[in-house]
Amino acid sequence: MLSQAERNQIIDLINREVVPAIGCTEPIAVALCTARAAETLGGEPEKITVRLSANILKNAMGVGIPGTGMIGLPIAVALGALVGRSEYQLEVLRDVTPEAVERGRRMIDGRRIAICLKEDVDEKLYIEAEAEAAGHRAVAVIAGGHTSFVFVSRDGETLLDRRTPAAGGGEEEDVPLTLARIWDFAMTSPLDELRFILETSRLNKAAAERSFAGEFGHCVGRTLCCDRERKVMGDSIFTRILSYTSAACDARMAGAMIPVMSNSGSGNQGIAATLPVVVYAEETHASEEQMIRALTLSHLTVIYIKQSLGRLSALCGCVVAATGSSCGITYLMGGGYGQVAAAVKNMIANLTGMICDGAKPSCAMKLTSGVSTAVLSAMMAMDGHCVTPVEGIIEEDVDKCIRNLTAIGRDGMNETDSLVLRIMTNKC
């Protein structure tokens, strides 16, 4: 049984990692950094230079920027400088207007923005924005987390400096977690301490329903609701899980001005940790308590895996997020800790190695793949089927399985990550 202090620590962790975001978090984090540099400068920059780690560049190249109808980093940088407010965090572009977009276009056309790869930086999440005007210069740096400012200066005077070798860990120490501790927390904590997690359901379900009413991205969510597709896949809880999850991703990746609840710096991870659980709970008439505990289990499992994997990696975040939702669905099916652990092992056995080739509209298809496996893994676990320790990277200890997964994604796939970036940046 966890103590009150331990529970409070875990609740604080969830509140840090599960936050609202508008737009894909990588270009939005770049806009946030640019906004802070412009604020520090004290006026509209005449020139902006942005230097990015390879992983940020990869994830920011192909997604729509909310409220603009445009794709890519230049408009995110321009709007961050013109109307961004750093106190909004990952909702930094909340105040975008058509007039601001037009000013941003003129800034881009005037060649006032330079974007380049930051050389010789080990941190996978690194953003450096330099703003210049009237002989003055301001610099802001984000590292380790999407909102984690580690350096700010104006005209050579240091205003903030938190640069350390461990900058990637953020300002807060990670809470030590295991899957067993997560289960204990989600199942035994007083309900009122967990009720805040329902906000993930409200925001992310609203994003999906908004997507159904429009044309966003590749329309994966809407496609799954069409008569033709229903004749192939049927009209079931499973297809509704797939359609809601992919629809929210469709809207987000296309740049809709719709907030979603993110997890560990990723809106898609937040969507995939939330909507499969919510749809299954609603379709099976689960109680509010069951919904709350299932969502808590899902989101905290994602946070746990990301602690080891890192904010950005060559491993697609769908794997992580879908693993969380598989845990939540298994619990809603009546499963105990043993079945939840089996579901995690089934997920790892199937989806390890799915590459991240940047944030983009087709991420909705990867979410669908991940969530399909999440449901299958839960059903297998409930039927007593679990991938065994003699198969691949699976071990008897579920926490060791997770560490095997994250080691592959964090360390083993670095060359894959470099190759993906080279392919992306060399396309005509």
Notable characteristics:
two-stranded antiparallel sheet; 428 residues; 2-methylcitrate dehydratase PrpD; alpha+beta; 60s Ribosomal Protein L30, Chain: A; single chain
Please characterize this protein's 3D structure.
The protein starts with a helix and ends with a helix. Strand 8 and strand 9 (157-161) form a beta hairpin. The chain is globular and about 70 Å long. The model is unreliable at 166-171 (pLDDT under 50). It is an alpha+beta fold and 428 residues long. Helix 4 (73-82) crosses helix 5 (98-109). A six-stranded mixed beta sheet has the order 5-2-6-7-8-9. A two-stranded antiparallel ribbon has the order 1-10. It has a two-stranded antiparallel ribbon with strand order 3-4. The chain is built from 18 helices and ten strands. 54% of the residues are buried. The chain folds into two domains: 23-169, 60s Ribosomal Protein L30, Chain: A; 179-425, 2-methylcitrate dehydratase PrpD, CATH 1.10.4100. The longest helix has 22 residues, at 288-309.
Can I get a quick summary?
Helices cover 55% and strands 11% of the residues.
Show the helix and strand layout:
Blueprint: H1 4-17, E1 20-22, H2 25-41, E2 47-52, H3 54-60, E3 64-65, E4 70-71, H4 73-82, H5 98-109, E5 113-117, E6 126-133, E7 136-143, E8 149-154, E9 157-161, H6 179-188, H7 191-194, H8 198-212, H9 220-223, H10 227-233, H11 237-253, E10 259-261, H12 267-283, H13 288-309, H14 317-332, H15 337-351, H16 363-382, H17 398-412, H18 414-425
Parallel strand pairs: 2-5
Antiparallel strand pairs: 1-10, 2-6, 3-4, 6-7, 7-8, 8-9
Helix pairs in contact: 2-4, 3-18, 4-5, 6-13, 8-11, 8-12, 11-12, 11-16, 12-13, 12-14, 13-14, 13-17, 14-15, 14-16, 15-16, 15-17
